[in-house]
Amino acid sequence: MADPRTPGPVDEGTDVLAEIQEEVARDLAEERPPAGGPAYQVAGAAVTIAIGVLGAVLALGYGLGSLDRPGPGLWPFAISVVVAVLGLALLVGGRRATDTERFSRSSLIPAAGVVTFVGLGALMPLIGFEIPSLLLCAIWLRLLGGESWRSTVLVSVGTVAAFYALFIYGLRVPLPHLL
Amino acid sequence: MDLTAFLDGFALVTEPANLLYCLVGVLIGMLIGVLPGLGPAATIAILLPITYTIDPVSAIIMLAGIYYGAQYGGTITSVLLRLPGEASSVVTVFDGFALAKQGRAGTALGISAVGSFVGATVSIVGLTLLAPLVAEWALDFGPPEYAALALLGVLLVASIGNGGMVKAMISAAIGLLLATIGRDSFSGAERFTFDSLQLSDGIDFVIVAMGLFGVGEILYNLEERHGKPHVPAAVANVWPSRKELKESSGSIGRGSLIGFVLGVLPGGGAVMASLAAYATEKRISKHPERFGRGALQGVAAPETANNAAATSSFIPLLTIGIPANASMAMLFGALLILGISPGPQLVDENPDLFWGVINSMYIGNLILLVLSIPLVGIFVRVLRVRPAILAPITALITILGVYTINNSTFDIFVMIAFGVVGYLMKKLGFEPGPMVLAFVLGSIVESSVRRSLLIFDGDPTGFITRPISGTLLAVFVVVALWPAVRLLRGRRAARSAAAEPAAPTPTRGKADHR
């Protein structure tokens, strides 16, 4: 590994790698929204600990058995304990990390997206997939994406027609449909 | 190596139908991989329902095609938009985008295509020769070895991914926990089902993957990339000149070897390989200062290495049955759905599948090379399509696709739930990759651990005294404790630096909590 052109410490190889990795991290950081701060880390850690504790309590109820006769709860219990311990480690050591992203007004866009997903899932068995899909496309294009009415109509109708052809005629999948 | 089986594999691959699946896979992979924000794992996740409708060999040939097609698609976005499709293309951005700014985007893409082809082909030859040997060796593995190997695989993926290691380990551990939902295969007891009939069979892997990778990614992109127009750099002269080929042939050669070796190791081999190849080129170059400012070698080496690694990461999947990274986890899950459990017995029990997949890669990569250079113009046009238009289309593909798996609306809601989890994880700095991988491996780890305990009569020291599982667990401990060791060393270095103010040493510990 020793290179005459670049005099330096023995672990030169790892240094170049670490340098590149840092550069990569910096590069990606430029594109990201501002970090969320300690509250976000605490929230992540708290959810983790809650999952671990809940898992451990439930697993205890399934019966741990013994090491030579492991019960159904032993493995989930062990994993839950690991989850909880890792959550604690995050709570103690990770509060100053900057790997989170702050929620902002634009976080409402994915929230609205989820609502349309649920709407499509709920309406499809009742009235077929065409109208809900058309609505989803229109909402995403016009309201969430800020497209013009013209491209909204063209893309929505085109997409739904293409999916109709693909699923109903092409793959012959029993997708609930109106027509 | 069984030569007849190898040749039979070729006969299978060159059947027109399979050739077509290979071609379609590569094309779809490139087209979707080129969409910013959707990497290979997400691409495969979204398209997994397709595999239910065709026969296993064709399905896996197509998925493999999607995988390396998507890998190359990510290169295109790295060079033209400065948006890496996935972590293993990140270093390509430095020199690739610099070249694009100098009007040499075409050259960068052309060299990447050639490098990818060479790297992948070298790797496939290695795979052809090495895989049967590894499989034979792995036949002796018992439950303790599998438990240790799978745990090590999960840990390595968690430690090499981007982001903090503690968070990646949390993500992996919760993945293992999710895998226990449903009926216990040993005792029949129901676990974490909350008396739900739908949960008693456990959660379907495809639905978890489509949710975390597919929907999570779509929601995340909806927020982040929203409204930002993409203006790809102009592309001309994709065919590399003889001088350029000569200039980068050394990098391509070294990249192939680095990629092959690192790709075999579990845990994001392609990411490490691309970084290591880039670092090597920079170190041995006579003009290291040109790196980052448009050095052709800075594109050729990592792109060759990540494709070589992507290919050789099939070795642990096909021979031991342990997926080495998130994309391989998707293929692993797909194989399980098709009723095939990958492992050392695969080469003997399913030679047509084993050799069919490997040999399809020779042809798939040739298809990729032939398509990528002339089709660059089309991909640039795809990049010009506004993300706002593509978003609802990908959303519909995932929702309608997941419904078709079991004709169940319950699946749609489970997928949406995992999508929300995936989105929140990304916002809070948790990588979904380790969770998916751990979820896939979860039942193997659990049943291997429990079977081992039965073999050892409940004595856990049995794991340590068996040579292979003992070694693997030793590696596990070293990797798991490495961040703590580095932190301590960094502190000590900082303390000694404080004692000698003449030679300040930068603290390395901070890098652990990125």
Automatic annotation (TrEMBL), chain A:
The chain crosses the membrane at residues 42-62, 74-93, 114-141, 153-171. It comes from the Bacteria. Keywords: Membrane, Transmembrane, Transmembrane helix. Residues 44-176 form the DUF1468 domain. This is DUF1468 domain-containing protein. It comes from Cellulomonas pakistanensis.
TrEMBL record, chain B:
The chain crosses the membrane at residues 18-38, 45-68, 107-134, 146-179, 199-220, 257-280, 314-340, 360-380, 468-488. Residues 19-437 form the DUF112 domain. Signal peptide: none annotated. Keywords: Membrane, Transmembrane, Transmembrane helix. It holds the Pfam family TctA. PANTHER family: TRICARBOXYLIC TRANSPORT PROTEIN (PTHR35342:SF5). This is DUF112 domain-containing protein. It comes from Cellulomonas pakistanensis.
